């Protein structure tokens, strides 16, 4: 297996987090194991990594009954067509994927080292809209759908397991991975972090990077770590002379961080004049 799997107990559920390797942007997909079924949260950038996620789910001996998609960045939905279960997303995310999935996938692959000549995954429309703030109980486990605005992207879904005080934050929070800054949300992202921090969750599972271990921040300390990165990144972007300079500044400031494979797509949006 090329990715890394981290297991987090969450009361009556168990969360198996698959962290993709660098060419998958260190993005996390989650298998939420319940008593009689498994629920997936996000599908990786490539079909190869999606098969690894499905292998994790298959090893549990329980059917996959749902796929939730957090947001419309390709590292979280591109391989959804491999997953036969019904799919769900917030209405604005569903609309973006339904109308622009192929372009988003193509651009993500074109801007990422290591994907030259790799066939693009076929896109799949999202089947159902998730009401923001709604709750659903599956196998006795409450899932709460927390909408987040204007962070890494304008709309995304976090999923909480309130009875276990656990939050899968997806790309509002990263752990030991460079944040994707392509949407210029330096200021509003701080507000989104504060909004999640105010919620009563003690175990935080991020959207990129290992949920814990290897000296990386864990639990609620992840909020300050992401605030620090945003502050440094905003200054670096203001002072950088171009994409290469920005990359160098961020890598020097956070030398142990992974996720540099995202820089090509990030800079596609940050520096439109530099596009070739």
Order of helices and strands: EEEEHEEHEEEEEHEHHH
CATH superfamily: Ribonuclease Z/Hydroxyacylglutathione hydrolase-like
Q: What's the gyration radius in Å?
A: 17 Å
The number of helical runs is: 6
| Domains (count) | 1
The helix-and-strand class reads alpha/beta
Low-confidence stretches: none
Which CATH class applies here?
A: Alpha Beta
- The CATH topology comes to Metallo-beta-lactamase, Chain A
User: Total number of β-strand segments?
Assistant: 12
Helix content: 25-40%
Q: What portion of the residues fall into strands of 2 or more residues?
A: 25-35%
Name the strands of the widest sheet in spatial order: 1-2-3-4-5-6-7
What is the structure about, briefly put?
The protein is an alpha/beta fold. The chain has 6 helices and 12 strands.
Please give a handful of descriptors for the protein shown:
276 residues; alpha/beta; Metallo-beta-lactamase, Chain A; five-stranded mixed β-sheet
